Amino acid sequence: MTELDPISIEIAGNALRSIADEMFAALMRSAYSTNIKERRDHSTAIMDPRGRLVVQAADALPIHIASMYGLMQAVLARPNDTLEPGDLFVANDPHVAGGTHLPDINYAMPVFVDDQLLGFVCNIAHHADVGGMAAGSMAGGMTEIYQEGLRIPVVKLFRRGELQQDLLDMMLLNVRVPRERRGDHFAQIAACRLGARRLQSLVQAHGRAHLLAVFDALIDRTAMRLRTAVASIPDGEYRFEDVLDGDGAGSTRIPIRLSMQVRGESISFDFSGSAEQVRGNVNVTLNATQASVCYALKAVLDPELPNNQGVLDSVRIVAPAGSLLNAGFPAPVAARAHTCQRIIDVALGALARALPGRVPAAANGANTTAVFSGVDPRNGRGYLYLETLGGGMGGRPGKDGKDGVQVHITNTSNLPVEAIEMEYPLRV
Predict the structure, then answer these.
(1) Which residues of the chain carry a pLDDT beneath 70?
(2) pLDDT at position 398, please?
(3) Tell me, what's the pLDDT at 4?
(4) Could you give the CA distance from residue 372 to residue 48 in angstroms, rounded to a whole number?
(5) For residues 56 and 61, what is the distance between their CA atoms, to the nearest angstrom?
(6) What single-letter DSSP state applies at residue 394?
(7) Cα(188)–Cα(199) distance, integer angstroms
């Protein structure tokens, strides 16, 4: 076993974080769509050989932790599959590939050193359209996932470094504005390749065994730090509940009920008693529920805590299969962020009862999305503009909440007016 000291862990850990940050910047600067290059609706991360999250980019979206971790579990669960240098996986499906909704397309590349697996570099980006019944792939009224767009299981887009052109052609045939989508795919591919090169260079400086030990240490330290913070919460059961106004397909006042239980360093969030999955597309997969709860807990107890596997493994989530918060096939999930925001409000409500004076009031509790599409009269080509509208924060202890900002798990920018008018036939 490699011996580590705190200084060497920090040096290697910061180097890993800088790789994730560089991947994030490269993806943003290479992307074609404004949803990525301007709004920054993407994330990057490094995983260990077991698919555990080691580091995430500083500007990554909290909700994306769910998809990247889910993808890795789906990749490693593939039977009789051999990982080889140059392979590159792509997936988006929430029901078979660990995704949370179809527009978020995940990429993962195994990184090898002397034919030994070191880990994976991953990224995720929200594509402005993945096909389906409506432009933007997130309209109300969808009642099954088939209506939401192209479903991609875990597949190799590159095998041993060779592009599977027929697979790419199939993906682009099923989406609107394929030229833009193609550019975003290749931006994600480039970000993975960059991360792999940087990680291989880091091995030359530190050695494979040392880096693997650092992976473990970073995760273990995060878990220990979170457990210590949890121990500061008085033992007990804390309940809170709220409702979604509706699902866009007939259901109204959809309940989300939580029992948060604290015992020493252990904490669990039990959503038993919440609604069954609904016809509309506000359903949530379990990994998205997990990411939402972990975000809320981290934000209250230790905002600077690294977002890695140590957080995910330290929090127990209970949500019955087939429920709103652990939806099963063929449930539609395109608008899952609406529900995730409300999950966070409910988790914060329970935490407020445990820790009075430390938790803000509920935020806008939604993730409103506007989509404009058509034919650009300036060039005769199709266009598609997607924007999510920030609603603002709840009041904080001793301060007002901030107005007109994205909150909690979204963490994206709005599209500048100049970019809107340059890219689209729109005037603000």
Answers:
(1) 1-2, 80
(2) 87
(3) 87
(4) 40
(5) 9
(6) P
(7) 17
- Predicted local distance difference test score (pLDDT) of residue 340: 96
The Cα angle at residue 249 between residues 245 and 254, in degrees rounded to 5: 35
Q: Cα–Cα distance between 322 and 326 in angstroms, integer?
A: 6
> Radius of gyration (Cα) for the chain, nearest Å?
21
Q: Which residues contact 29 (CB under 8 A, 6 or more apart)?
A: 37
21 phi/psi in degrees, rounded to 5? -65, -40
pTM here? Answer: 0.95
Per-residue model confidence (pLDDT) at position 414: 86
Q: Which of 51, 160, 55, 68 is nearest to 115 (CA)?
A: 160
Residue 348 pLDDT: 97
State residue 422's pLDDT score.
Answer: 93
- In angstroms, what CA-CA distances link 35 with 45, 131, 185, 281, 388? 19, 16, 13, 21, 10
Q: What is the dihedral of CA 202, 208, 214, 216, to 10 degrees?
A: 140
pLDDT of residue 276: 98
Q: Decide if 206 contacts 244 (C-beta within 8 A).
A: no
The tally of CA atoms less than 13 A away on the side-chain side of residue 187 is 30
The dihedral over CA atoms of 77, 78, 80, 86, expressed in degrees to the nearest 10, equals -110
**pLDDT attached to residue 405:** 84
In DSSP terms, 370 is beta-bridged to 387
Give the pLDDT score at 412. Answer: 87
- Going from the C-alpha of 165 to that of each of 159, 265, 315, the distances in angstroms are 11, 50, 41
What length does the chain have? 428
Structural tokens at position 1: 């076993």
Give me the phi and psi of 418, to 5 degrees please: -60, -40
Query: Hey, is 33 helix, strand or coil?
Result: coil
| Separation between Cα atoms, residue 396 and residue 357, nearest integer Å | 9
Residue with tokens 């800088």: 18
Q: Chain centroid to CA 291: how far?
A: 8
Residue 407: predicted pLDDT:
87
Residue with tokens 């400086």: 205
Q: What is the DSSP string of 219-231?
A: HHHHHHHHHHHHT
- Is the preceding peptide bond at 397 cis, omega within 30 degrees of 0? no
Closest CA to 275 of 352, 198, 356, 331: 331
